[in-house]
Amino acid sequence: MAFGNIDLNPQLIQAVRDAVDIVGIASDHTRLVKAGKRYQGLCPIHKEKSPSFSVDPVQGLFYCFGCGAGGDAIKLHMLTTGDDFPAAIENLAMRYAIPLPSRTEARFAGGKPERNIEGALQAGAEFFRDQLRKSPFARKYLEETRRIPPELVERFGLGYAPEGFQNILPALRARVPQSDLEAAGLVGRSERSGEPYDRFRHRLMFPIHNAAGRLVGFGGRALGPDEKAKYVNTAETDRFHKGFLLYGLHLAKREIRETGRAILCEGYFDVIGTVACGLEGAVAGMGTALTPEQTKLLARYTEEVVVAYDGDNAGENASRRALPLLLAEGLGVRRARFPGSHDPDSLRLEAGEEAVRAAIVGAEDAVTAELDRLIPADVARDPRAQAKAANEVGELLRPIPDAILRYSYSRLAANRLEIPVEMLARRVGGGAEKPAPGRADGPQAGPQEGPSPAPASSPSLIRSLEEQVLDLLLQEEVRSQIPPVEELPPPGVFLDIECRNIYEAFCALYAGASSPPDFQMLKSRLGERERTVARLAKIMLEREVASGRIGLLESLDKLTDRWRRQRIKELHGEINEAQRKGDHALRDRLVDEKTRLSRSLHRGSRQGTNHGLG
Ligand SMILES: [Zn+2]
After folding, report:
1. Residues with CB under 5 A from ligand 1 (ion)
2. How confident is the model at residue 437 (pLDDT cuts 50, 70, 90)?
3. pTM tops 0.85, yes or no
């Protein structure tokens, strides 16, 4: 989320693109080692032990052979910080000292006065921290009642909003305009008198940051016994969307990425309490049910989530509602059990740190636990209960994207339900196989669909042949060998949708020019088509890894031949079908096509403009 009133105009975006240094950005998050023209290191996006992350400083691209993430420097910044595109542009512009146009314009254009809301929030956070130091009551509450170690008070930036309606404004008036404090949600205005007043009063203050570490708002916990609302958050604004934020993520993300585990709590104090037990990687929702956006955010950093919700019924229900969202993101989910109605923090205070650690470390697999609950031991003796349980199991397992995992759980459940696994598997459904990052979006279009058997070569070989061709088309040394655009095969010979996108862009640029486009032209044409750019990054960075390189014309021929073989197979079926229907004209046309294709296939030579693709 952007914080200033930044106008994301194309000039600004281009200026950022031109200025960013991908090696510098990558080096913030991982240690890079130079290898030839490239840099290599451990991937900052997924957890790994041997380096598969590669950066090309000349082309300004990165690619990870482990997780498939790839793209340009802005994309890398987004993936490593959690910034969205506008925030990335703004942060990178600041980092590379690029003037942010609308800010300065607004100052001088006499338009709406510019707001500095983040400045107001920061001034507020400072004020609250200062008030905490001055309030023996609030300090005693934190230190004695809550037993939060001083270093964690510091680390989480905790503060105190004093009693009374007129504190923050007089204290900050000299530095922060009242309108900014209002826009930041720190100061409200009485509907009757129009008088400004402090929104947070006699509350313990938790600063809330987005994943990029920028202050976006506050949560305030009541310290008075008669407060109606125990927790109050900053009102929803452009920069404070509860459903998109996870408390503590900016502090925990590095640890989460390193351990591959996040601990998902319900409350702010649970996060701090869990950390106080020596367990890093704790985050919390914002006092509302977990949202799909929060789940996606979490999935960017981890593969496994330990749900550490309260042990009472409400916590149990909340964790059950969160389960399908987490599973749908492909996350492994474990559920920590806290005795009675304890949460991590109350358990720490009552039973000690070891009890919390044991609950988190010993957390059970959440799906298995749910299956235990859904399938009572004697269910097979009651057909109706059996059918009901099978339905519920279907609902539970359906969101799991990994087909093998889904099947394994289905088998487990089928055994207990005493029904054949195939029957249950049908109930569970196909599931939506989640494409790996950087892979094609959905089912691939083109001739490889349909009922005909898969081509003899494996999909990965097919893919690498297509990538190989694209790689060759973009190599400086090979450019002189590239045939005229009208002699190049049509885009349809590419079965992989991303490769086809790249090839189409290549041909479109080539068609309007006297020579083939170079890599930079292609990259800027693809612009923000992230998946396609990621694939392009893969192709470019694979170049030095790829072995057994073949020539351009040879690989173009291979590609075309593959298509011919595929089409011949299809024609076989189509000819039989035409014969069966008695459509002789069609049959003859198809036979002709097949003969032509077979001939050009066996001749194994280039066909000039016609390729035998008819
Ligand atoms: Zn990776």
Report:
1. 43, 45-46, 64, 66-67
2. very low
3. no
